[in-house]
Design goal:
This protein has 19 helices and 31 strands. It is α+β, with helices and mostly antiparallel strands and 778 residues long. The strands form seven sheets. A seven-stranded mixed β-sheet has the order 3-5-1-15-12-13-14, sandwiched between helices. Strands 7, 10, 11, 16, 17, 18 and 31 form a seven-stranded mixed β-sheet that branches. A five-stranded mixed β-sheet has the order 19-20-28-29-30, with helices on both faces. Strand 16 and strand 17 form a beta hairpin.
Length: 778
């Protein structure tokens, strides 16, 4: 397998990379041919499992009366904590938790203890879904309830500073003396921002279909963002070798982070299948989706900002308090973006957690950076207005030419170009600098903007490319397409790298029998998989060049490999392009039906470390330069505020992003639009309500949990700044799925502030809060 940096020259331009190719999986999806995890109905003997969940948030199960349920037709098994098969490992102990990709922290039904409302207490398996549902409804569960803690705001929640946030960041971070710098700053601003609990709510709920093909061989069709991670976790928990577990996910109906981990139902499904000796399908209901796969935690941020009278930052002091589960030190890493986005000599961050009777919160699109940008970008606007500066001007004044956290240069940064182009598209120069002065009829009109950034997370993964002599290719990687377009962009990469039309390339993903790669999350899939496929294609060409230069009948006979380039599937001399031949001709003479290449593709610091090692080997005089890697962008927003109804409507939107090489502007634009809509929902309407006394959700459904619909969203303008980044991966690609939501809530809030002269710092900005704010003096 090729694991070295690739310096082989290839020229596929002007190919399909960078073109707005239609989704290659679009036909399968719109015609219903795409098979999702809950649709493997052809499995012989398939039966259905339904969860019975707890009505109380804290306590113990005293008894479960299964007699009425057992008598129902079609019921095959009822599993509870009393008869659940024993597992080899569970996350219930600290030594096992680190090895398992399971933020649930403990597996329900391994004891009688209840930690949160909606926790599974039984699994009913029956021949039909209806039989299983009815039998589950007949279960009589008796509890010994205890008074739950509902959130960090509950007086009984004992706040603490964790040693680390799941190993990502320490509980306290200091750079310089931020406290002293703040106290001596000529300009001081302090504000507290709150963010409601929100849920991912992908169109496809959590679903697992488990099939024991032999007593020691399991196949699982699961709604997972990482088939390899799910395979590893299930193998450890079930006491199997990794190769004895196969995990498949060909299509995913959205994930947004909640499908990045192994949740209780994913483990309970194969246990149920083992108990009944038949394939079992277990699909979460919409209310169970709210309690079964994590959420974005409710949180409070206090940001103290110190600056000069000219608007230069001197200190940033960030404190965050949020809710976590009884067993996990989980919090979104909000301080990360506060620390790196602007040049500031002193910074301090502190995290406080309150344990409550909830499932562990989890990754939600741009975890940490999204809510962190809300506090930072609103505070930057407040600084601008206090000093009489343009909000865009104050951001340029504090532009970070190097990463403030470590002094490293950026691998690439085109944020100034994003500001300039976004302002042009939006007409920013036409804004009235005074708040509350622009009207359209009775509506108050305001405009706002905010900066977006998201880091490049280091990752790596394998890919395999097989090129056939007839001009077709099969490309394989064990990645997941979340619905974002991975099928399409990797087809484009492979087509260009092999010199083939895209219709001659078949990309296979979502199966642990394919080359192993890491999960699709953290905006890593495009950068990692494109790199591995590109390098695997180069290995194919290296093999063909070796054949050609050793073949007396080839026009490239005895040529130096370094003098050969590849263009549109043709091998030719650099200096004499006419001297060459197609790969088909090389393979035909050599009687080769196909040729295969494989590679390990690296992304982020893993790739730069690879390049640095190669550079250091060639020139040991200088130490390699380390770079900080982020995508950057900006959002511009206009809102209309109805002072009588308290409604806020987004009426114009512009986003400009710089994320390295854009593989497909159509799918990339779709990602930015989707992320922006996600953020608008969080700004104006999304909120999960948890009863403060019972710690149960009161709106765990899509009727009462409000999300934006088409009528809430205007036409959106999205553009990209073309950016060359030789450090991030072999293709110069950065992820774009998560940066799209960063800064969105702040842009909306800043536009509301401009429209009304009142600052709302409590999300979502619902009509009651708007009306209350409008009653206050400006």
């Amino acid at each position: 397998m090729n694991t070295e940096p690739h310096f082989f020259e290839t020229n596929a331009a002007p190919g399909v990379v960078g073109q707005p190719l239609n989704r290659v999986d679009g036909w399968a999806k719109v015609t219903g041919h795409a098979t999702y995890s809950a649709e493997y109905n052809q499995l012989l003997g398939l039966v259905h499992a339904v969860l019975k969940t707890s009505d109380v948030a804290k306590g113990r199960v005293q008894s479960i009366d299964t007699r009425a349920a057992q008598r129902q037709p079609g019921v095959l098994a009822i599993l509870t904590h009393e008869n659940l098969p024993k597992l080899a490992k569970t996350p219930n102990t600290p030594e096992n938790k680190a090895a398992l990709n399971a933020p649930m922290g403990f597996l329900p039904m391994t004891s009688d203890q209840i930690h949160y409302a909606g926790q599974p207490v039984a699994v009913v398996v029956a021949d039909t879904l209806e039989h299983a549902q009815y039998a589950a409804a007949l279960l009589q569960v008796s509890y010994a309830p205890e008074k739950p803690v509902s959130s960090y705001q509950d007086p009984k929640a004992q706040l603490y500073i964790p040693k680390s946030i799941r190993g990502y960041l320490p509980g306290v971070t200091k750079r310089g003396n931020a406290q002293a710098a703040y106290q001596s700053a000529p300009v001081q601003l302090t504000a507290t921002y709150t963010h409601a609990t929100t849920h991912h709510n992908p169109l496809e709920p959590g679903a697992t279909t488990a099939h024991w093909e032999a007593p020691d061989r399991l196949t699982v069709y699961d709604t997972t963002q990482g088939v390899s991670e799910t395979q590893k976790t299930l193998a450890l928990m079930l006491g199997l070798a990794t190769e004895q577990v196969r995990v498949v996910n060909k299509y995913l109906g959205g994930g947004f982070g909640c499908k990045a981990w192994v949740w209780p139902h994913v483990v309970l499904a194969p246990l149920a299948a083992k108990a009944v000796g038949r394939p079992v399908k277990l699909v979460l209901t919409r209310p169970q989706q709210f309690t079964g796969m994590g959420f974005r935690e409710e949180q409070e941020q206090t940001l103290r900002l110190g600056a000069t009278k000219e608007g230069k930052l001197l200190a940033l002091v960030h404190e965050k308090t949020s809710t976590t589960s009884p067993w996990e030190d989980y919090a979104e890493t909000n301080s990360r973006i506060v620390n790196m986005l602007y040049a500031c000599p002193a910074f301090e961050a502190t995290y406080r957690l309150g344990r409550a009777n909830v499932m562990t919160p989890t990754s939600t699109r741009a975890p940490g950076d999204m809510p962190g940008s809300f506090a930072l970008e609103c505070s930057m606007d407040d600084l601008a207005y206090q000093l009489g500066l343009d909000p865009l001007q104050v951001r340029l004044l504090n532009y970070a030419e190097k990463d403030p956290t470590n002094g490293h240069p950026w691998s690439s940064k085109s944020l100034k170009q994003c500001y300039q182009r976004g302002a042009e598209l939006f007409g920013w120069k036409n804004r009235n600098p005074r708040n509350g002065q622009t009207r359209d009829g009775k509506h108050l009109v305001g405009v706002g903007m905010a900066t977006a950034s998201y880091p490049v997370h280091s990752s790596q993964g394998n890919a395999r490319v097989r090129l056939y002599a007839d001009g077709r290719a099969v490309v394989q990687a064990g990645a997941t397409d979340l619905g974002t377009g991975t099928y399409t962009i990797i087809t484009q990469v492979a087509a260009d790298a092999l010199g083939l039309p895209p219709e001659n390339v078949r990309f296979e993903l979502g199966d642990t029998v394919l080359p192993t790669t890491q999960w699709s999350g953290g905006s890593t899939a495009a950068g990692r998989v494109s790199s591995s496929v590109y390098l695997a294609a180069q290995e194919v060409w290296q093999k063909l060049i070796t054949v050609a230069v050793g073949d007396k009948r080839s026009p490239l006979y005895k040529a130096k490999p370094a003098d050969i380039v590849v263009e549109k599937g043709r091998l030719q001399l650099k200096a004499k392009p006419a001297a060459g031949e197609t790969f088909g001709e090389v393979m035909k003479r050599a009687n080769m039906g196909d040729v295969e290449g494989s590679a390990l593709g690296r992304y982020g610091s893993a790739y730069e470390g690879q390049l640095s090692s190669a550079t250091a080997d060639m020139n040991k005089k200088e130490a390699p330069v380390e770079h900080s890697m982020h995508a950057f962008g900006t959002h511009f927003c206009e809102v209309h505020v109805d002072p009588e109804l308290g409604t806020v409507r987004v009426t114009r939107w512009v986003s400009v992003m710089a994320a390295g090489r854009i593989l497909n502007p159509k799918t990339a634009r779709s990602q930015v639009i989707g992320g922006s809509i996600f953020g608008i929902g969080a700004a104006l309407m999304e909120q999960t309500v948890r009863d403060p006394h019972l710690a149960r959700y009161t709106n765990a459904n899509l009727a009462d949990y409000h999300i934006p619909v088409n009528a809430d969203i205007p036409d959106m303008t999205v553009e990209f700044i073309d950016e060359h980044d030789p450090h991030v991966n072999a293709m110069g690609v950065k992820g774009i799925g998560e940066i799209s939501i960063v800064g969105v809530t702040a842009a909306v809030a800043n536009a509301f502030f401009h429209a009304t002269g009142r600052r709302l710092r409590d999300l979502p900005m619902t009509p009651d809060k708007v009306l209350n704010a409008l009653r206050q003096p400006a």
